[in-house]
Amino acid sequence: MVEPDLVKAAQSGDREALVRLLREIEHQVYRTAYYLLNDEQDALDASQEALIRIYTNIGSYEEKAKFGTWVQRIVTNICIDRFRRKRPAVSIEEHELVFRARDDVESEVMGSFTMREIREAIGKLPDHHRTVVVLRYLQDFSYGEIAESLNLPLNTVKSYLFRARQQLQVLLQDCQKGGVRG
Amino acid sequence: MKCEEVMELMQRELDRDLDELEQARMREHLAGCPECAELFARLKRLSDELEQLPRVVPPYSLVDAILPKLDQLATDAAGSTGSVPKRDEGDSPPSAPEPSRRPGRAVYTRIAAAAVFGLVIGLWLVNESFFQRAPSSYEAAMPPSAQQEFSPMSAPSGAAPDAAEGDVSVTAKKMMDVTGTGTSGSPEPGGPASEKLRSTQGGGESDGQQAARDPAAEYAGSSSGGSAFGFAGETPAHPENAAPGAAQGGSREGVPMVGTPVDQSGAPEGAEGEFFAAAEQQEWPSPDGQWIASVDNGALKVTDATGEKVVFQSAAREGTAALVEWLEGDRLRYVWVGPDGNRTAYTVDLASGRETRGETAP
Fold it and tell me: Which of A72-76, A95-99, A177-181 is least confident?
C-alpha cells in the first residue's frame, strides 16, 4: 500500500519522492507483466516502459481511483498491447507445440500441477480473462479493484474471472490427461 | 436450487464473497449433488494453487535501470517547460539552457565511474573468492523453492564469480528481508524488522538508498544490496546514481557482478555464520505489526503483537520454518523444512484459522 502523502509529494514535483514511489511499486508492476507476458525479458521491458509512463504521467493521476489500480491499469494496457503485437493469432496447436517442447525448467510442483503448467494455462486464456486472473491472484485485488483497473463493469469482471477459472480447470485437466508432466 | 445457480455461488465462494446464508445454501446443494461437489473441489484446488503462484521479483532494480532515462526526461522537460520534477540530488551541473536529447555528461561520468569501480571490485572479488563460498551458503540456508520464487526463469545461481546479479543479490537480499534484521536489530513489531518484511510483498525491496540510510537495515542492505554497492558509508548522497551504470554494465554486458559482495570488506568476519544465524531467526512480525509468526515446539504459531493471544497454530512437525512471507489480507505463507530436508509450502488464512498445503520440489 503506497502512502497517499508520497503520491502527493511526487505529484507536486518532488523528484526524490517520485523515484521512491517507483521503487515501491516496481515489484507489483513486474509481477503483473511477468504473468501476463509469460516471458522474463518481455516483462522487464514492459515494466520499465510502465514505470517511465507512470513517471511522466504522475500528474494525471486523480485521487478518486486507488493509486494501485491506476498503476495496474497502465501496466496491463502496455502488456496487452505488446501481447497483441507480438502474437496476433496463435493457434491452440502452436501453443501445444511450445508447451511440449519447452525444457522443464519450472518443474516445481505446486500441489498437483507444476508452476509451469499453471503459467502456460494462464497464457492460453483470452487477454481480458488472463488479466483478471492475474489481478485477482497476483495482486490480491477485489472485484471492485479489478473493475477500476480495467475500466470494466463489476459484473463483467466476475464473469471473466469465473469463466477464466472454468477454462483453467479444463486446460489443466487436459494437460494432466495428456501426460505432459515429466 | 439448480446446478447453474450454485455455480455462481461456488465461484464467489472462491473469492470469499459469500455470506453465511449463501454458504449454507451452497453446502446444502453440494451435499446432495456429487457432480457439483466434484467440480467445486477441482475449482477450489485450482484457486488455492493460483494463490500460491510465486511473487516473482525482477532480477535487478528496474528503477535503477531507468534512472538515466528519467534523468534525461527531467532534463528535456526542464529545458522546454521548467515544470517537471526537479532534481534534488544537486550532484550534477545545471543542465544547459537549450533542450538536449543527449544524456547529460554527468550521467556518462557516473556510469563510467560505476563501471570502473565495478571492475576494481570484480578483481578484488576473484581474489577473495567470495562467490565460491557465499552462494553455496545462501543455497544451504535457502530452500530452492524460495530461490525459484524470486526469478523462476533465471538459471540457478552457481558458484562462479560472474553469477548473475539477480540470483545472488536478490536471493540474498530476500533472505535478509525474510529473516528480518536479525543480525543488526531487534525484530520489534512495526519497527525496522517489519519494515523489511513488508518489502517481501513487493515494496521498495531494492532500495539501496533507503537501506543505506536506515541504520538498522544497514547490514541487510550492505551485505546483499545490488544497488547499495559500497557507497553506503562512503558517498551516501549518490548510491541511487551509481546503481544504474553498474546494473547495466554488470548484468547486461556480462561484467562480473560487483554489487553484492562489495561490502563484505566492511562486514564482520564470519559473515557466513551470520547468514545462517539470520536464517534461523524464528519470529516474523506482520507488516502492520499486528501479528507475530514464530516457530514454537515444531509448530508454526501466530500470535497477536503482545505474543499472548494465539490466533493460529499449525500441527506440530519435525523441522522448522525456513521462509515466512506475509500476504495481504491477514494471510501468510511459509515453507516448512523437515528433518529430511523436504520442504512444504503452506498458506495460512488468519480469518478462517486454517492453512492450505502445497508441496514444493524436493
Answer: A95-99
Could you give the domains of chain B? 3-51 (no CATH), 62-279 (no CATH), 283-359 (2.40.10)
Summarize the confidence of residues B94-119 as an average pLDDT.
51
**Which of B7, B9, B39, B63 to probe by mutation at the A interface, max A CB count within 10 Å?**
B63
pLDDT at B75: 79
ipTM of the complex: 0.84
Q: Minimal Cα–Cα distance from A91 to chain B, Å? A: 24
CB contact under 8 A, B11 and A161: yes
User: What domains are defined for chain A?
Assistant: 1-88 (1.10.1740.10), 89-182 (1.10.10.10)
A52 CB neighbours in chain B (<8 A) are 66, 69-70, 73
Mention every residue, 6+ apart, whose C-beta is less than 8 A from residue B34.
Answer: none
pLDDT attached to residue B126? 55
Q: What does the alpha-carbon distance between residue A90 and residue A105 come to, in Å, rounded to a whole number?
A: 23
Residue B356, amino acid: T
Nearest-CA distance from A38 to chain B in Å?
Answer: 10
Which residue bears the cell 512471507? B325
The rounded distance, in Å, linking the Cα atoms of B143 and B341 is: 9
Rounded Cα–Cα distance for residues A72 and A78 (Å): 10
Cross-chain CB nearest to B87 (options A15, A24, A35): A15
Q: How many CB pairs under 8 A join A and B?
A: 156
Minimal Cα–Cα distance from A142 to chain B, Å? 8
Q: Which three cell numbers stand for residue A57?
A: 504521467
Residue B232, min C-alpha distance to chain A (Å):
17
Q: Quick one: closest CA in B to A143, which residue?
A: B15
Task: Write out pLDDT tens, residues B303-359.
Answer: 888 777 888 888 878 888 877 888 877 888 888 888 777 778 888 888 888 888 864
B351 contact residues in A (CB cutoff 8 A) = none
pTM exceeding the 0.95 threshold for the entire prediction: no
On whether the CB atoms of residues B52 and B333 are closer than 8 A, the answer is yes
